[in-house]
Amino acid sequence: MSKNTLEKLHSNYMAIMVSIFAALGGFLYGYDTGLISGIIDMPYFIQTYGHLQENSTNTYVLASNDKSLIVSILSAGTFVGALLGYPSSDYLGRRWGLILAYFIFSFGVIFQTVAIEIRLFVIGRFITGLGVGIISCIVPIYQSECAPKWIRGAIVSAYQWFITIGLLIAAIINNQTKDQMSYVAYRIPIGLQLIWAGILCIGMFLLPESPRYLILKGHIDQAYKSQSRLLSKTIDDPEVTNVVKEIITDTVLMKAHQNGTYIDCFKDGPEKNLWRTLVGIFLQAWQQLTGINFIFYYGTSFFHSSGISQPFLVTIIINLINVIMTIPGILFIDRLGRRKLLIIGAIGMLICEFSIALIGQSNGTKQRMLIALICIYIAFFASTWGPSAWVITGELYPITIRAKCMSLSSASNWLFNFILSYVTPYMIDKDKGNLGTDVFFIWGITCTGCLIFAFFCIWETKGLSLEQVNYLVKNSSPMTSAELNQQMTSGSITENESIQLVDKSKNSF
User: Fold this and answer.
1) Using only C-alpha atoms, what is the Rg of the chain?
2) Rounded to an integer, what distance in angstroms lies between the CA atom of residue 465 and that of residue 452?
3) Share of the chain residues as helix, strand and coil, in percent rounded to the nearest 5
4) What pTM, to 2 d.p., does this model score?
5) Cα–Cα distance between 242 and 463 in angstroms, integer?
6) Taking Cα atoms as reference points, which of 370, 398, 238 lies closest to residue 307?
7) φ, ψ of residue 429 in degrees (nearest 5)
8) What is the pLDDT of residues 28-62, one digit of tens each?
9) Pairwise CA distance, residues 237 & 230, whole Å
10) Alpha-carbon gap, residue 72 to 131, rounded angstroms
11) For residue 399, which phi and psi values (nearest 5 degrees)?
């Protein structure tokens, strides 16, 4: 690590720590996702919420419709929660919006923990989803607005990393409690979420508000105080003054062109708001269409039905790979860039998925090949599409409509999450579609769509401030953005020049 990098890390220590702590919100998302994958395969949970298999006296099964409802209802809640992310973050603020989300999340967890029949459990899952949806909308915004531009991609990627850690911890805890033939089998893993939420809620009370949000609301003095805390400098320090003035200039320019309404999100003017909004919405949709949550929601059940011994252990291994391989994504997203990572990831995933579908499910060698290819597929997703989608949507939008666009893109993620998690049992259960590994033909086709989308629709925004991103989007197409980005990061176009030129640029894509 160079001396210059160490100096920048030291000078931005507070901003980095604030952004990373906020990323812990991703742990709740990942933990709950990993939790349900194992719980729906626990013998006592199936006995409690399932029914006796036909012509059997001691074998319980969970009906496909109940399994779909239990898993997918969280995503229905997160869809609504993501849409609530805009009013929560714009009226309450980024900090208080997250605090509200943690309280809502906790109420849902309590309902699930005490439930002894499926209706209350499902209601609890929905309420928990509301909290997770708000978190998924606000955390990337808060991180992007607080993080230094030179490391913003890595810091926002930490949100995805904590999602993967949550998945892993849930898999480990599930493995420890799965054989308990009492309510503790699933109540302990579920109830532990109250501890995680409590820690995050207390922490958010202590963190500063986003200076960009404060400027948007006209609280300039508070913005100076917040930015000084993030930079660990005095309010009158020149660096603090320059950053705040730059944000004020960009905010004034954006307000001159738009009022910050939902209608502005879909205006096709020189700011390309319509294009940006649609890119964010479809980027999050394509992330879900990679098929990743087929593994994390139904992986344990799929491995079990495929005849693989110790499906819980295989799930832990896959989640461990997910955690480890997110680290290369964090390290390279600010070096290789967003576009390249998405393109590389899509190519790697579609090759793995078509290969899995062609191999099929059998015994011995083919089973080992199936597990190996799924692990490689997870590695490609974790290092590319996993973190990049959240990074791009967190930095793509102008300040005046950022929260609204982020809520729409997050809602898109959860809408497709809900659809896919609901229909998957009907595609793979033996008494329904019984596709088995043929389902990976579908994921291979959708990953081909991911590749085409990344190539034609994603701007290269690495290394730019959020204010510079506005200039880049206005003055380039996705396929020419890397060249303009290079000019801006190399100093051919200075930061002040790009902010001043935003208002004068008339180019459109």
Assistant:
1) 23
2) 27
3) 80, 0, 20
4) 0.82
5) 18
6) 370
7) -60, 145
8) 988 988 888 789 888 899 988 888 877 766 778 88
9) 12
10) 15
11) -60, -35
